[in-house]
Amino acid sequence: MLIAFDVIFTRVLALNMPLTKIGLGFAAVMVCGMLYGPGWAALCAGLLICRALPPAPHGTYPHKSAKAQHLSTAFPAAVQNALTGCLNVSAFVVFFTVLARLLLHFLPEAFASSLPCALLLGFLELTSGVLSLPCSRAGFLACAALLGWGGLSVHCQTLSVLAATPLSARYYLKGKALQALLSLLLALPALPFLFP
User: Fold this and answer.
1) pLDDT for the residue 4
2) Cβ-based burial of 38 (10 A; exposed 0-12, middle 13-18, buried ≥19)
3) What is each CA distance from 134 to 19, 94, 141, 142, in whole angstroms?
4) Which of 61, 71, 88, 193 has a Cα-to-Cα distance from 105 of 20 to 30 A?
5) What single DSSP character describes residue 150?
């Protein structure tokens, strides 16, 4: 699979300049890692959660009737909705990143560089937690679990979108917890190959 991604990057996308090779050299490994653990864990968690959902009575979800709109009203509304979504996502990312940095500032230095602290940061904001993980077996397994979980920042972004739908946040959070567990379990077989 790594060879296939390398061929796609170098031959199909013509990205074989030295600068892009340096910048994108890790991309194939990253994509394979995502496909291996958290991707399959998401699929399995979704299937398991869907089986646990109560059946919905036919016709309970109202479908919005699509009215024909003029471009002069539809285009500005689409741009405004896109901006609202971008601001919503950005606000949660900034809030939880600042919260993680404040937390690091007030924690003892010995704890701030430990694996439990990285897990706590990742629980709040995914990127902060993953970037502070050690390059070890425990760090790899923690990374798999954090990628499956997503962080509270991602959950708040998702829940803000779910608020306008009839979907339940309860099943979303159960699914993400299950995805984190499955991602961790699916990462276990890779340990002997990545950390001999």
Assistant:
1) 47
2) buried
3) 27, 24, 10, 9
4) 88
5) -
